[in-house]
Amino acid sequence: MVLTLDNMGEAADLERNLWPDSSTPVGHHYSVTEILPHFLAILAKHDVCVTYFIESWNLAVYPSTIREIISAGHEIGWHAWRHEAWSKIGSEEQERANFARSFGGEGLRGFVNNSKPGEAIIDSYKGFRPPSGMIYGQRTLGICKEYGLKYISPAGQNAAVVPLQNNQDSMVILPFRWTTVDAFYYMETFSKLREMKGESEKPQSEQSLTQKIIAQIDEGIVRGGYLSILFHPFLSNSPERLQAFETVVAYLA
């Protein structure tokens, strides 16, 4: 069982031309300033560590927050440069450009170079979760290997070790399932996916989320294997949703 977080700050909103808000400057997103402290406190209370897949754009915008996350014992995973939907990346040139920017001076290398000893972990990016959950097969896996990534977390069912085209290396696949993602229950834009999965098109309650995710945790314990639970801080923007997050965290603990 693995608890994971996705998306940090306004990176995705910037990519979708939804930010900056005229009243809030970049670098002060509510999910970082208001919600994330609650998440970290809940995780510390229950002694649970997470993998937080963070867009590399954030490394220069929220460096102190990211160092705080690292110092609390959580893993930092990669979530593209600025939450670009990987299904729309298209060409290998564009894909490689996103890797290069994310791991270069504007991203991970710059973050490490600007950190004092012990403040940053050079190999923070051990895993990649592609926004939208899709990849380009062997092409993406091969580039991940070139950049030293150890695993990838696309949408899928079962964990696996996949041989690469050269037959000399392999990549670990640690997938997430949409039915263990908070957005699947909360967001209007997931209505069609909910219908495809046999659920009501309408957004569901916090109680529905906790019941259904906990049921899948129980099933996973009986069945064995790998299961990833996924929350987005920006979606836990009410006391009820924060309580739902804590309910799941406490159950995992």
Task: Describe the protein.
This is chitin deacetylase. It is an enzyme of class 3 (hydrolase). Residues 33-97 form the NodB homology domain. One of its GO terms (biological process) is chitin catabolic process. The chain has 253 residues and is of the alpha/beta class. It has a single domain, classed as TIM Barrel (Alpha-Beta Barrel). The chain contains 11 helices and 8 strands. A 4-stranded parallel sheet has the order 3-2-1-8, with helices on one face. α2 (30-45) runs parallel beside α11 and α10 (206-223) runs parallel beside α11. It is globular. The chain starts with a strand and ends with a helix.
Summary of the model, kept short:
Keywords: Carbohydrate metabolism, Chitin degradation, Cobalt, Polysaccharide degradation. Helices cover 42% and strands 11% of the residues.
Sheet bearing the most strands, described?
4 strands, parallel
The CATH architecture assignment turns out to be Alpha-Beta Barrel
Structural class: alpha/beta
Strand order of the largest sheet: 3-2-1-8
Total count of domains? 1
Strand content: 5-15%
CATH superfamily: Glycoside hydrolase/deacetylase
CA-atom Rg in angstroms: 18 Å
* Strand tally: 8
By DSSP (H or I, 4+ residues per run), the number of helices equals 11
CATH class: Alpha Beta
- What is the helix content? 40-55%
Task: Tell me the CATH topology.
Answer: TIM Barrel
Sequence stretches where pLDDT stays below 50 over 5 or more residues: none
Q: What shape does the CA trace take?
A: globular
Element pattern in H and E: EHHEHHEHHEHEEEHHHEH
Distance between the termini: 10 Å
The overall pLDDT, averaged over residues, is: 93
Cofactor: Co(2+)
Enzyme class: hydrolase
Catalytic activity: [(1->4)-N-acetyl-beta-D-glucosaminyl](n) + n H2O = chitosan + n acetate
InterPro entries: Glyco_hydro/deAcase_b/a-brl (IPR011330), NODB_dom (IPR002509), Polysacc_deacetylase_ArnD (IPR050248)
